[in-house]
Amino acid sequence: MKNKILGANISVAVSKTFSGLNMNALKFLLPLWMSALTGATMRCVFAAVAFWIIALFLPSEKTVATKEKWLLLLLGAVGLYGFMFFYLLGLSKTTPISSSIFISLQPIWVFLIMIFFFKERVTTGKVVGISIGLAGALVCILTQKSDDLASDAFVGNLLCLISSIVYAIYLVMSQRLLSSAGPLTMLKYTFTGASISGIIVLFLYGFDAPVLSLPIHWAPLLVLLFVLIFPTVISYLLMFNGLKYLKTTLVAIYGYLILIVATITSYILGQDRFNWTQLFAIAFIFVGVYLVEVAESKDK
User: Fold this and answer.
1) Which of 155, 157, 236 is CA-nearest to residue 189?
2) Is 119 inside a domain boundary?
3) Number of structural domains the chain divides into
């Protein structure tokens, strides 16, 4: 069992590292090489096809009831696609570091969901941690100005904030459904549901992806392939292996890696500029999430 838990931690760490690089890759692609809505649909459809093909070569998982299949499709159509929808729209308007700040809030949203909907015990430590973390997010939203790197920082940050809430809901529901459905079954059906939502949205707003037009632009095309294969397919496979053996809150805390990787890569690539208010927001969120996790550990 210890080996499985170690493997689960490594899986989630690698998954979140890919997710951090994903922010920088998507920032490179959006909106010049593809629109946010097209990007969300491409990721969902590619992953859905990939997971159904992968399932053909792996041992069959336990049979899932028809009702649960519909629940998985709904979870994907609303939760998974909703996360990508708001996340890519937000990232197209703000910087990778700012967007990763809001992704780091996921443990706080997870705790709030558990408190309001699953009767998690409220303690002073949790309240203080949640308050500090939300204060950091508020600083980022209210102080970041729009510039050449962030076309509409305020709206972009709000959209990323919404995406992190939606993803926290998806995380909580995913782990609860994992008890009755295997990881690959869940991935197949949730991404299929997300693909249905994405195709409907594209039908309404149109397909916009110059990266796929001729002549071939190799740099953006390779970046797109990286996004589709590593942060999308491989990352989600690794994350669900982690969800199988780790607490939802621990998986969410690995979101710190997204922030660390995205920050370092953004400075190297010139996708963001250092500023003290951003550092202040990051510190507040780190402290807030840490206090919440300490309070949770004492409860257990």
Assistant:
1) 236
2) no
3) 1
CA distances, 234 to each of 115, 216, 226, 231, 244 (Å): 32, 25, 10, 6, 16
Please, what is the angle between helix 218-227 and helix 2-29, to 10°?
150
Cβ neighbours of 109 (radius 10 Å): 22
> In this structure, what token pair is assigned to residue 256?
């710190």
User: Structural domain of residue 72, as residue ranges?
Assistant: 2-104+149-246+256-272
Nearest to 82 by CA among 201, 176, 188: 201
**Token digits for 262?**
């995205």
Single out the residue of 153, 172, 155 nearest to residue 108, CA to CA: 172
* Domain assignment present for 53: yes
Token pair listed for 148: 């050449």
Going residue by residue through the chain, which has 300 residues, state the pLDDT in tens, using 9 for 90 and above.
667 788 888 888 899 899 899 999 999 999 899 999 999 999 999 999 999 999 998 888 778 888 889 999 999 999 999 999 999 999 999 999 888 888 878 778 888 888 877 777 777 777 888 888 888 888 877 777 888 788 888 999 999 999 999 988 988 888 777 767 778 888 999 999 999 999 999 999 999 999 999 888 999 999 999 999 999 999 988 887 777 777 766 776 777 788 889 888 998 988 887 777 777 888 887 788 777 766 666 655
Residue 128 lies in a domain: no
Which among 281, 300, 298 has a CA at the least distance from the CA of 143?
281
| In-domain check, residue 174 | yes
**DSSP output for 156-187:** HHHHHHHHHHHHHHHHHHHHHHTTTS-HHHHH
